[in-house]
Predict the structure.
Amino acid sequence: MKTTHHHILGWAEATSEPAWLESDFDLSVGHRFEKVVATAPEAVAFCSPAGATITYGKLNADANRLGRLIRQHMEGSDDVVGLLARHPAAAITGMLGALKAGHLYTPLDPSDPPIRLEYIVENAGVRLIATAPEHVAVARRLAGEAGAVVVIGRDDAAMSDTDFDSGTAIADPAYLLYTSGSTGAPKGVLHSHRNLLHKGEVQRTVFGMGRDDRASLLFGPATGAATSGIFGPLLNGGTVCPYDLKMHGLHNLGRWLNDQQITVLHVVPTIFRRFLAFAEDRETYPGVRVLILPGEPTFRRDVDLYRRHFGPETVLAPRLSSVETSVVAVDYLDVGSDVVEDILTVGFPLEDKVVRLIDESGQEVSTGSIGQIEVEGEYLALGYWRDPELTSLKFGLAASGHRTYRTGDLGRFREDGRLEFMGRVDDRLKIGGLTIEPREVERAMHRVGRFKEIAVVGVSRADVGERLVAYAVLEDGETELPPHFRASLGELLPAAMIPTTTVLVDALPLTSLGKVDRRSLPDPDMERAETVPARDDLEADLAAIWSEVLAIHEIGVTEDFFELGGTSIQGLHAFALIGKRLRIDVPSTTLLQAPTIAALADVIRSGAWEVTQDSLIPVFVGGEGTPFFCMHGGGGGVFFVRDLAVHLGDNRPVYGLQARGFETRPGPYRQVEELAANYLEEVRSVQASGPYLLGGLSFGGKIAFEMAQQLIQSGETVALVAMIDTQANPTGRDADPGRHRVLMESMSPAERVSYLARGASKRATRMAKRGLIRYCLSRGRPLPDTLGLRNLYFYPMHARANRAYSPVDYPGRVAMIASKEQSQIHQDTWGRVSIGGFSVVEVAAVHLNLTDPPYVTEVAGYLQDYLDKADPEIVIDEVRS
């Protein structure tokens, strides 16, 4: 085994504050953090994408208050605190509060399916859940009657904010991180305070993390990468800068990097490639000091992208790590590095790790030979939570007294000492930076469909990266996947664990030992029947965009975008790329009527998206039940209706009504009464008489309510008005002119200048966009969908109409699907005017996330129940009712 190690000497002088001393490794994580706070309490520890900051002093005070409250509720140091928070500021406060209290924490991702969260809470023995205010309903459901729930920043407000000694020892457990499990259930990986401190120290010695660094955080708090991304900066005096890719989008990531002056960018290669697809050729990010690409293979074309878009001082750092071992190996390249391999190595083992490559008998293999990667070191995980059998199988003890861990990864040492990653010993996968056990995915697939056999594998291509593919043999009598197959899997699995493609085969190939021969499985891109290639340049361009967005190598022009696994978010991504690359501003809702490349190309050639009747959008046209008409929200678009429809039953047609002029030429301000009358004209073109089923999202619920009023007044029958979190009495969003002054009080002079510059840039951007809107309106042109102009135009106009409309008594029935903690408000408002009856159910999501996974499944379930019970054309089974 080669023992050569690699360093960038300039990083040895990293300006972490305070400097790491040998005595620091006798302290807990909380004490190390307090040393950092004492050095510079006014330094910025956290900066939101909008520029809001939290100083080290304030973060420490908040964690102290929460820690004291946790100690009041819990006793033993082995008790586990569950942390349920999507917002990074709340999650970080929760982590520090639990550690300061002397307890270990386990992060819970609110976007995970309830079944997974319930398993983790039960398996970990969580007795207390610390949560952000927006997740209280979910936390209480998970905690049950025996558990306690505390709200971060609210329930701890009266506690002292001074430091305190919990008596935590360096060897005590610190956190429990659940990863995909080979038995079909998640498994918990346990780490100590010593290991977490070591993560911080490695970030300084390996990546030069220091007080001048602003480090990106693109990972959720329930991932191993987030642990380093949070504690790396915080234990070295740097700033944690989170960015939610789902909320803010890949297309804004590059601007955020420059606006926030990010110096350490930690991003998986797939996301790295996709965000640069939005970048202009000359767009660069010179402030990034180190670009870390973990979790997936890094290709030579990634180096080309790095050289094109990053500054001459930026260092590229592919690395190998796992939840059990943290960072194992890392390599460094600069713009002048000579790269000849198609796939880069993961570099040299860290000095605190000994890496051996062993054969099946446990003996080391020679340099140049492939073997399983075994890691020896002082800072490996303590083991698997409550699973001594698996712990003894994977972990061992070396002659040095240090623990060993057999990773299951295959590797090969080159002559220069660099390590090549060669895949997995078993079928365990790492996709998108996440470790995935195929058996967990296979188990979920068996729960939602009738299969004889299933094999889930990772399929890698240099052009699209690695993706998850399922091969399945159907039970006798079955000819196709069950309806809404991917949506059903979404109720059991996180999005990253849902196969991109499911290939139906007659039988799975087997080895001589009777096991599935995964190497003999057919190419998933060749198994899709009757694949029709592109017939002209337009179809070829569209196919290339779909291939990039869906991560499928070859797509036939007759294949359906959604049946290939596409989501509405990916649809928006695809149309953004169409607008950018083809210079054609096709409305994204076109995909609902033209879901194949051939159909979309025909629409583009003919210009058929410029229709006169531009409100009524057919989303699903099957079924014998009464049609359901769903009104747009404040933004004017109805793409969300597709996400609802895929989770609804197939027993009725579903239509969306988008804002007049949304895809053509936007009209002037109209009150709710006028909007309702306009939309009724189009509704009656499909359904001439009642009973009607109407609904809407947010502002759209108010339009549906007024449509029902007008129908009743004309002598028609309305069976139901179904609203999704519609406020009867919305409040205005008047800006507080003093909020900027309050924010800047905690900033240094340099940060104030940067904050003001970012604000000026945003205002200039908004002014430029409004100027473009005025230009388009003055010439009767559509608003481009790729620049966010439609939202900027429609939201303020609809907000004005929303505030101007006051509901009056309605003789029919209204049903409400409310966001968290809004049920009583709706009951007190809509309940009073809904004379014919009012029902309300609550979903544990904030208003903006109700139609996003995983909440959209629950919302659609309630909506389906409301519609079926109100529809005279539907006979409801007694058991269901």
